[in-house]
Recover the amino acids of this structure.
C-alpha cells in the first residue's frame, strides 16, 4: 500500500504542502536559529516516504487524526538535537511539552523524544516508543490544517523571540494580494519582495511599518486592507522593485510583471 501510494505521488510530481502550523513552526525556527537553518524542514527522506504504513511525514499519510490526511498535505516535522548550533532538544522539548499541556499548542497531536511518545489523546502522558534520541518528532492534528501559530513562539528562554522579532518575521513572510486587499501569511512568498530590510531607505521602511503595524498585535493572519493601504502597498512595491539588493533575485521578474 505504501509503495503504491508513493509511486502515485511520484507520478503526480511529488507535491508537498505543509499544514499551516508546520509551515509557521519551521519558518520561525529558521529565523530563530539562523546557524541551524538547513536543519528545519517539512520534507523527509525516502525511507519515510516508503514506510508502511505511510505516516505524518508523508503527503499520503494514513495516520491523520482526527480527520483523514488531506492529500498532499504534510503534518509533521523533525527538530534535530544540535546544541553546537544552539538547538538543544532537551530544553526545547521540556518547553514544548509544558506548552502543549497548558493548551498553548492546540494544533499539536503528539511528540516523540528519547524513545517516549507524548500524545494529546493520552493527556500528554509518556508511553514507550522507539528511537528519536537525536531529534524531536512533532505531528500536527489534521483539524488544524489552517491554524497559524499567531503570537506563540517555539523559541525558548533566552532564545525567545521578542515582540519586535515576531513582528519582523510576520512582515518577512506576508504577501498582499493587491487585487483583493487580502493579506495572508505565507513562508517564502513576498509580493512586496522585501529581501533585505537594511537595503530599504528609511522612508520606505517607515511606510511599510505604518501600513502593517495595525495588525501586528493580533493573531489574525488574514485581514482585508482598506483601499488607501492597498494603494500605499502598490506604490511601495514599485519603489522596492527599483532598489538593487532590496528584492530577492527570484522575485525580481515577478515584481516587474
Amino acid at each position: 500500500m505504501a509503495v503504491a501510494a508513493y509511486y502515485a505521488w511520484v507520478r503526480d510530481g511529488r507535491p508537498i504542502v505543509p499544514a499551516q502550523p508546520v509551515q509557521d513552526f519551521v519558518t520561525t525556527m529558521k529565523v530563530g536559529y539562523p546557524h541551524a537553518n538547513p536543519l528545519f524542514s517539512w520534507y523527509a527522506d525516502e525511507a519515510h516516504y516508503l514506510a508502511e504504513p505511510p505516516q505524518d511525514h508523508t503527503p499520503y499519510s494514513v495516520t491523520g487524526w482526527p480527520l483523514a490526511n488531506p492529500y498532499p498535505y504534510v503534518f509533521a516535522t523533525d527538530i534535530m538535537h544540535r546544541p553546537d548550533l544552539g538547538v538543544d532538544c532537551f530544553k526545547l522539548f521540556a518547553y514544548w511539552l509544558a506548552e502543549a499541556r497548558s493548551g498553548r499548542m492546540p494544533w499539536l497531536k503528539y511528540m516523540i523524544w528519547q524513545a517516549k511518545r507524548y500524545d494529546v489523546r493520552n493527556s500528554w502522558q509518556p508511553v514507550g516508543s522507539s528511537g528519536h534520541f537525536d531529534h524531536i518528532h512533532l505531528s500536527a492534528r489534521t483539524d488544524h490544517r489552517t491554524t497559524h501559530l499567531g503570537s506563540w513562539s517555539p523559541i525558548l528562554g533566552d532564545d525567545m523571540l521578542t515582540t519586535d522579532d515576531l513582528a519582523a518575521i510576520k512582515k518577512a513572510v506576508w504577501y498582499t494580494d493587491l487585487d483583493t486587499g487580502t493579506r495572508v501569511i505565507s513562508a517564502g512568498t513576498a509580493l512586496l519582495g522585501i529581501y533585505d530590510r537594511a537595503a530599504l531607505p528609511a522612508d520606505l521602511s517607515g511606510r511599510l511599518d505604518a501600513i502593517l503595524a495595525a495588525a501586528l498585535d493580533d493573531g489574525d493572519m488574514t485581514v482585508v486592507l482598506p483601499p488607501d493601504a492597498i494603494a500605499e502597498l502598490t506604490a511601495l512595491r514599485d519603489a522596492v522593485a527599483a532598489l538593487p539588493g532590496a528584492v530577492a533575485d527570484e522575485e525580481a521578474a515577478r515584481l516587474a510583471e
